[in-house]
Each structure stands twice: as C-alpha cells, then as structure tokens.
Amino acid sequence: MKKSKKATLKGSFLWLFFSILAFLTIRWAFVEPFVIPSGSMIPNLLIHDHIFVNKMAYGLRWPFSKEWLTDIQEPKRGDVVVFRSLDEDSFYMVKRVLGLPGEQIEITDEGNIIINQKPLLRNNIKDPDVDVEIQKYDELDLQENINQIDFHREHFSDKKVLVMNSKDSFSAGAGHFQVPEGHIFLMGDNRDNSRDSRFWGVLPLTHLIGKAKIIWLSCQKTLVSAPFLCDPTSIRWKRFLHTVN
Known about the structure:
It is a single chain. The chain contains three helices and 15 strands. It is an alpha+beta fold. The longest helix is centred in the first third of the chain and has 25 residues, at about 5-30.
C-alpha cells in the first residue's frame, strides 16, 4: 500500500526538524566553525583558515545564553581560544593564553615574557631558511617579507610554539600586567601585529567560547564574487585537518 502524500510530507518535515535540531545542538554544545579574518595569529593560524572550536573545553552554556550551565574550567597556558570581544559581544576574536588568574605578567622591550618573575623559555631561530616548520610558509601566508621577521619558539608545558616579531621594530605593548582571579591574559602569535591584552586588558573567563582545535579548510584567497568562500585554486591542502598548536 502506498503512503499518502500527507504522511510523506509529515515525515519530511519531521526529518528536517530533527536534522536542524541536531545541527543546532552540536553547534551549541560541542563544536562550532570559525574563520580567521586577520593576521594576528600568524604563523600558527593564517588568514582564511577555517577552524573547528571545541565549545565544551571550558564548560557548557545554557542554549542561546551567555550564562554557564557548568562551572568554568580554567584554560591552560598556551591554549588557543576563541572569545567574545570586550567591546562588542557579537564580535569574536582568537588569541593564545599567556597569563592565568592571579599571575603577574611582564613584557620586556625585547618581547620576552616573564610570568611571576620567571622568564618563559624562548629560543631565537637564527637561521629561518633551514627551519623545517618555517619552510612550510610563503610570504603571502606570513603577510610580510620573511627577511623582515624574527622567529622564536616559546616553550609551554606540553608544546613548543612558533611566534614572530617584526625585525628592528620596538616591542609593542611592553609593560607590567596583573591578572585578577577569574581572568586570563591573551596575546597573538604575530606579536607586533596583534591587538590583545597588552592593549585592551585582561579577559574575563565568562567571555570564553571554546578552544581552537582543528583547521578543516584553508585558502590564500577568497572568491571576488563571494568573499566568504575560498577560491578553490588557492587552497592550502597541507593544512587540511591540521591540529591547532
């Protein structure tokens, strides 16, 4: 016996409803996609990197709310996080966690980071031409002449992170900072081209969205007719499913 058109239509609507509900649930509680719009996190996140963010990394919010359903978990130093801007709730930013609640942070004129009077281990890369990681990038990725960049590796408890400064420029945002309880101190990996906690202050943990986990798509250019879509001729294939360091 054939199903009536009414029954078929009802089944289609139910399928569509539950599909949308499942999508919204995953986006609310588990993962959400974001696109990197600027170069403040170069070289680890490039312009037009498309990333997935783990929204359960630091807790869970009520649906369609800024209120937290669970206790907020403190991020680790070195985590790359997505968060709401202090100036505009609807504007999202991405930076790296450098200072944790209760810590004192000093940024020297040379760009060194001192945490509670203990320097963060930071090695200068004297010969970028032979560094395997740096060789993965071209000048379009780095948005700067490679000969005008000083590269360093900063050491965290579980990883080493490549960061960069503009050569022969003064260190932007040098100074002393106190991180209150319930707040974190954030910086971009492109140190002389990042507006971060050195300029707008520490971030309340309540502004956290989640932890950047995976680059699922990346391209050097977008379509002229649709700037929100990648130009398929400029896809960075080597960054496909690349873990965010």
